[in-house]
Amino acid sequence: MQAEKQDGSCVSPRESALAQGVRLALGALSVSAALGMLGNGALAQEQDGEAAPKKMQRVEITGSAIKRLESETALPVQIITRAEIDKAGVTTAAELMARVSANVGGLTDGASINIGGDQRGFNSANLRGVGTSSTLVLLNGRRMANFASPGDDAGVDLNNIPAAALQRVEVLLDGASALYGTDAIGGVINFITRKDYQGVELNAYGSGTQEGGAGKRTVSITAGTGDLATDGYNIFAVLDAQQTDRLSTSQRKFIPNLNVPERLGHLLSSFTSPANIRLSGAQRDHLQEVGFLLNGKPITNRQINLSIPDCNPPANLYLPNGTGGVDGCTYDYMRDTELYPKSEKQNFLSRGVLKLNPEHQVYAEVALSRSRTNYVASSTRVIGYLDYSKVPQLANTGFDTILDDDGKQVERELEVRMRLKEAGNRTSELTSESQRFVVGATGTVAGWDYDVGLNHSVNTVRDRDTKGYLLKDKLRAGIADGSINPFGPSSAEGLALIESIQVNDEVRHARGVMDALDFKASRALMAMGGGDMALAVGGEVRRERTQFRLSKLLMSNNINDDSAPEGGKDTSDSRTVQAIYSELLLPFTKQWQAQLSGRYDHYQQVGGALSPKVGLTYMPSKQVLMRASTGKGFRAPSMSDLHRPTVYSSTATLPDPVLCATVDNNYADCAQNWDTRRYSNDKLKPERSRQFTAGVVLEPSQHWTFSFDYWNIKRTDLISEIGDDIILGNLAKYGDLVHRNKDNEIDYIELRKENRGAQKATGIDITADLHGVKTAWGRFGAHLSGTYVLDSKIQTSPGDAFISNLNKFVTDGVVQRWRHTITLDWDHGPYSASLSNTYSSSYDDQNSAINTDDGSVVKPNRVKAYTLWDMSGAYAVSKQFKLRAGIQNLFNTSPPYSNQAYFFLSGYDPTYTDPRGRRFYASANYSFK
């Protein structure tokens, strides 16, 4: 049987995502190739008369400390130029990294929209999907302080990268611990800013969405003076400011079209407005005995709502199969939250270089950034208590006149589960600030090229509750005395009380500091058949410090919906890191070249790690380059892994096999959200890895370049916790981690960081470039960058089976089989245009959420492929003035439906999709030279 496409043609359902993706990519490239061939004959004489290309300059490429031609490297490096950034219409480093096919499952603003979540505001990269903590992010080849808030992920906040100052981005798709040390298992992303600039450049950018919300405005100014060659100095600065508007669920048509209440009613909330009443068993039995009717029927559940079946839509619904049940209301928080946060970002970068003499220079670099983001979730929920006599519909039911089965008076007090819309949505302001100061010197001494620098880098994170969080004691008192009405509008007195107990407090404050002194030196040693043997040596001494503070108000446990962490405390930790490394370049012949490197790091308290690497290139002809590398890497445990205070949280809805065995495996009675305690471990050792890559670069003509690179990563001694689902699924092995009370019920599950298990990931990176094709209609170019993952799986503990997350959502995310970015370019005189496509293949959904009302498991789903098209055009009014306009998400594609239950936002996966829809933007650039 075949499935019919929208155009009426048919496609086999067996056809793989890779086949579809590659066919789409090659088809697009073929269009440009055909245009190129049309113009080749007509312009042959013009091409013959072209000036000889300039001699390529040897530069330092990410992954090597020795300068060489970009094409000579044995390691696969993708380079994103400033022109490509402009064509894409992106203004932040996070938006740029979302277009890199090898970046899978990084942390995003969408995933940060939650209540009391870990590391909110952290935007990260995740090469190969092996973890944010295993992707090293550099700025001009040097480290930055990691995002300071403690959590499971360690890495640089992409919000702190000065996007407007970028000259290019180099993405090393291979492990690089042999040169850079820890965190480089998945690869390295080096954001490279302008090194010198003369003149003044002004940029302005504005964008808006078709359906409203999430508009953006940015301005930047770049100014520089001094020519290093003639004046002996250069100093320049870049200032960039951005502002993005909020986007609420009410502004997007695709949200109701997801049909979350019908599909995922069990993920919704029983805290509603008007409030649900949670009866005790005795209260329910008494109401049944006195013939109390609700919606014309006797009640059957302990949870009731006096407003059914109306329930105050659109967020509060009568959903008998939802969490509110047949006698209550269910709250759909996807009708009452934000999809994209309001934010303000400011970045400043300045760099100065002074030439002391022909052999020596000194330089200084300052990078300052601040990102302030408002994360807005659903309105606050509260459990309150009030006397039944204050509820008119129940005032005459006589709770105070009857006794329960034990002869005790039935409780007068009612428990209400309410959603306090009058307090506003819960809003947290997350501010991430970064300061980075580098001073150094470069030059030549006795034939050695040297670079020595001192790096002081700071990241500060402030998490402030600003609205919708209330003082718990006064809130409950207001409910009890009737000032705050759980079932309708509150009185003026109640509204005044709500406003007076709003919390505006910096509840969490984290600061991370990194001070480093580094040096490297390189020189040619002797002539070999293919050039000079070259040696590089280097070293680093680094001091890392972290501080984490909790406010007194938070620790008083009196903020409704922002509970104090049990056992929480302020922490202050530090450690010293020392490292030396060396690299040797051996050009045996014009065809054969080897790269040998190794680095030894020693971490205070943790110990040492040796990381060797061998790379080899073979160029049998000018059209073919073969390359391979193999090496070992490591990831040192982060300060959070070692010293983070105990975190009290809960699992997803999971069954307890011990309890299930007593209730005929009825998930309605034996599955729930179990309490957990998550512990750090100061005895952790580094993770170890080994990497292997092998590839070929082909240049069959002056216009075409292809590359194919196979990569293979294996990590061992993983720093991880055993998943709560794995623990409950294998009690014979992990039962000692489940702590039970005297009734053999689960008290809490122990989740402790340990060195355990392994991870494997393999795949193929594919690139194709069409460049410099001149025709009578202009010059054409195209680029394809894709990643086909062959395997991605993780082993929780030695002896356990590997669990694959390839094309399947497992625990916290998915690694799609195929992802690509395609770009088609055209320019003719002052005009230019670009069309691009990003694609992620379909995959099996989480498919594990349990409905505790009836014990059913969510209906299996396969998430559809996600593809976005962008288009832009530019006009150079003059050499100084350039205009650009574009459309992002040209076909207004919505995120595909997902039943994932890991993130706060439901109905789709916010880690890789974009809820903004079709967007229009325009930019202007004016430069004074």
Describe it.
- The protein is mainly β.
- It has 17 helices and 48 strands.
- The strands form 10 sheets. The chain has a 22-stranded antiparallel beta barrel.
- Residues 71-188 form the TonB-dependent receptor plug domain.
- It is a multi-pass membrane protein.
- This is TonB-dependent receptor.
Task: Return residue spans where pLDDT drops below 50 for at least 5 consecutive residues.
Answer: 1-57
**What does the overall shape look like?**
globular
List how many beta strands DSSP finds: 48
Helix content: 10-25%
> Which structural class best describes the helix and strand composition?
mainly beta
Distance between the termini: 64 Å
Largest sheet: 22 strands, antiparallel, barrel
- Percent of residues in beta strands? over 45%
Task: Using the CA coordinates, give the radius of gyration.
Answer: 30 Å
Mean pLDDT: 88
**H/I helix tally:** 17
Organism: Janthinobacterium kumbetense
Protein name: TonB-dependent receptor
InterPro entries: Beta-barrel_TonB (IPR000531), Beta-barrel_TonB_sf (IPR036942), Plug_dom (IPR012910), Plug_dom_sf (IPR037066), TonB-dep_rcpt-like (IPR039426)
Main location: membrane
